[in-house]
Amino acid sequence: MERSQVLAAARAYFEAQPKKEFVPGQTYVPVTAKLMDGADLEALVDSSLDMWLTAGRFGREFEATLPAHFGRKTGALLVNSGSSANLVAISSLGSPMAKEFKREPLVAGDEVITLAAGFPTTVNPIVQNGWKPVFIDIDLKTLNALPEAIAAAKGPRTKAVVIAHTLGNPFRSDLISEWCKKEGLYLIEDCCDALGATVADRPVGSYGEFATVSFYPAHHITTGEGGAVLPSDGKWKRIAESIRDWGRDCWCEPGVDNTCKKRFEWQLGNLPYGYDHKYTYSHIGYNLKVTDMQAALGVSQLKKLAGFVETRRKNWKTLYNGVKSSPILSKHLTPVEPTENTNPSWFGFPMHASDALDRDKLTKNLEAKRIGTRLLFAGNLTKQPAYKGVDFRVVGDLANTDRVMKKTFWLGVHPALTPAMITYMLETLESEVKALTT
């Protein structure tokens, strides 16, 4: 059988699957969902037929095509999750190799400004590297840190800023990157929830030393598990690639030897001259690579990104208009607003509940009516049990972060939603809010 016949059969199989009818109140409306088509299955099967199980031709294609979506020219580094992407990017700031291009690496006790209202794996690599997180509060209107709050948090040991674009609503990375350059600080943009968003007409991830992204099924495109690191230049890429690939000094592709043309002619560390470069390690590293099947799915999904982002924005706008136009909803729910001078790529539709509305009862009732809900991740990270005993510094009282922990939730805007689902979401939201407040 020819490969083309196998691929055609895979696509036909996918497209022949019956579509499930949406039944309000019975069919679950997920808060996140992947959107797949026959081309995605065809790509998966195509890569599987190669029987090349680690990253290969699809990995190289994905790493070459992804950077343009972040305004980057340097190739991307695929990793096995967005959390791993953060681990690699943040750990890179501590590399002694930074001195080779006149940058000072972070050392034990240095501080990194970040958010208490966020996802833990944006912060965990700071702790894992022996650095101190400096938690700041957020702006309730946008769920992001304001530039002036970041500037006020700087101390004598502050060396970097690591912040996520919350739920696809960007922070002002244009302003913050300029301040970081002036102050000699590193900036990492966690874009795991924001692929396709822009700041000052530039893609998120185009500012700072690194950007990171996730391809978990909940995100804008998916490879199942997966993520990527987007370095600003080849020097940072060399460091991040080493950390991703066991910490080795060698940069050969899988299955390739002697790319440097002097495999047995190096002398590094206290090793004897000529020690095999493939087994010479310049960093404390990991194995965080992906398979070519994951990369193949990413190549296919990336072609559909623009449409996915457009649909997310459309669904967000429909929900926003629905809440704002309803007297009962607009009284008790305040939608988050887009950050000024940005164009979000919404991951969800976040709202703040009024003091008169019990957020927890509302989300439980919505779930009972088969509508998925989520809180803003960890709420206040400083109150999570995992951070008990962690050495961190807090700037301010985190009052807005605490309010988000108690009063904020979000609904889905993903492209698998249908108009009927969104209508049901708004109608149910209105009936449940009315029931809880009258």
What's the gist of this structure?
With 438 residues, this protein is of the alpha/beta class.
Please provide a written account of the structure:
The chain is globular. It has 438 residues and is an alpha/beta fold. Helix 4 (82-92) packs parallel to helix 5. It has 14 helices and 14 strands. The protein folds into two domains: 46-302, Aspartate Aminotransferase, domain 2 (3-Layer(aba) Sandwich); 305-437, Aspartate Aminotransferase, domain 1 (Alpha-Beta Complex). The protein has helices spanning 3-16, 38-50, 57-65, 82-92, 120-128, 147-152, 173-183, 234-244, 292-302, 305-325, 327-332, 359-368, 399-407, 419-437, and strands at 77-79, 111-115, 132-136, 158-164, 186-190, 198-199, 202-203, 210-214, 227-231, 333-335, 342-343, 349-353, 393-394, 408-411.
Task: For the structure shown, list the relevant keywords.
438 residues; alpha/beta; Aspartate Aminotransferase, domain 2; Aspartate Aminotransferase, domain 1; 2 domains; 8-stranded mixed β-sheet; 3-stranded antiparallel β-sheet; 14 helices; 13% strand
Q: Which helices and strands appear, and what pairs or packs with what?
A:
Blueprint: H1 3-16, H2 38-50, H3 57-65, E1 77-79, H4 82-92, E2 111-115, H5 120-128, E3 132-136, H6 147-152, E4 158-164, H7 173-183, E5 186-190, E6 198-199, E7 202-203, E8 210-214, E9 227-231, H8 234-244, H9 292-302, H10 305-325, H11 327-332, E10 333-335, E11 342-343, E12 349-353, H12 359-368, E13 393-394, H13 399-407, E14 408-411, H14 419-437
Helix pairs in contact: 1-2, 2-9, 3-9, 4-5, 4-8, 12-14
Supply the CATH class of the largest domain: Alpha Beta
| Spatial extent as radius of gyration | 23 Å
Name of the CATH homologous superfamily of the largest domain: Type I PLP-dependent aspartate aminotransferase-like (Major domain)
What value does the average pLDDT take?
97
Q: With helices defined by DSSP (H or I, 4 residues minimum), what is the helix count?
A: 14
Helix content: 25-40%
**End-to-end CA span:** 67 Å
Overall geometric form: globular
Q: Reading side by side through the largest sheet, how are the strands ordered?
A: 1-9-8-5-4-2-3-13
Q: Name the poorly predicted regions.
A: none
By DSSP, the count of extended strands is: 14
Percent of sequence in beta strands? 5-15%
CATH architecture of the largest domain: 3-Layer(aba) Sandwich
Taken together, the total number of domains comes to 2
Structural class: alpha/beta
Order of helices and strands: HHHEHEHEHEHEEEEEHHHHEEEHEHEH
What summary fits the major beta sheet? 8 strands, mixed
Q: Which topology of the largest domain does CATH recognise?
A: Aspartate Aminotransferase, domain 2
